[in-house]
Specification:
Distance between the termini: 33 Å
Low-confidence stretches: none
Number of domains: 1
Number of strands: 0
């Protein structure tokens, strides 16, 4: 991989990781509801889980999906169901006074597994592999995965910090409820590319 392709990949990884999507909306909600420190496993699960996803998809999983086209429909249905459940969890998060005792942020494994039903993650992985791993070698897939892991973590951290800062104004139950309902609605809205016909 040449230096100019590596630079272009780095820019793509940062922009695609930093723009709004299911991961970032959930991290913002997690930062607001649970704070930065408790959201670290969630952030690491996203970065490392997505890197693993890139390698597995590049190494041949995508051929299995192409050979069995109904698997795309199954993945779409699972994505919608799981993201709707996550939106419900965000919308019904505990009030500020109960935050420490009730509710848990997403774990490392939950965040890593979520990448497989995240439509934006699939779009990012397929684009990155197609554009930046043209020779389709395991080394190329590994480079794409490592770049994403390194660039993704700082990009998504901004959303958790933003959520933590927003928490300063979420000092009563009504404000927190409005914030959580808004985050849940935006998470559902992020399903539009999956639900609407191309």
């Amino acid at each position: 991989m040449t230096l100019d392709i590596l630079l272009a990949l780095t820019v793509f990884a940062f922009v695609s990781s930093a723009t709004p999507g299911p991961n970032n909306l959930m991290l913002m909600a997690s930062g607001a509801n649970y704070g930065f420190r408790r959201s670290i496993p969630h952030m690491l699960g996203i970065s490392i889980g997505f890197g693993v996803m890139i390698i597995l998809v590049g190494a041949g999983l995508i051929q299995a999906f192409d050979a069995w086209p109904v698997s795309y429909t199954i993945l779409k249905v699972l994505s919608v169901i799981y993201m709707t459940w996550l939106a419900w969890k965000i919308a019904t998060a505990a009030p500020v006074t109960e935050r420490a005792a009730a509710g848990q942020p997403m774990t490392f494994l939950q965040a890593a597994a979520f990448q497989w039903v995240n439509p934006k993650a699939w779009a990012m992985a397929l684009t990155a592999l197609t554009v930046y791993a043209g020779d389709a070698t395991l080394l190329a897939f590994g480079i794409v995965a490592v770049v994403f892991c390194l660039v993704n973590l700082p990009a998504i951290t901004m959303w958790t910090v933003l959520g933590q800062q927003v928490a300063r104004i979420l000092t009563n139950t009504t404000r927190l409820r409005v914030f959580n309902l808004t985050m849940a609605a935006l998470l559902i809205a992020s399903l539009a590319p999956v639900l609407l016909p191309a």
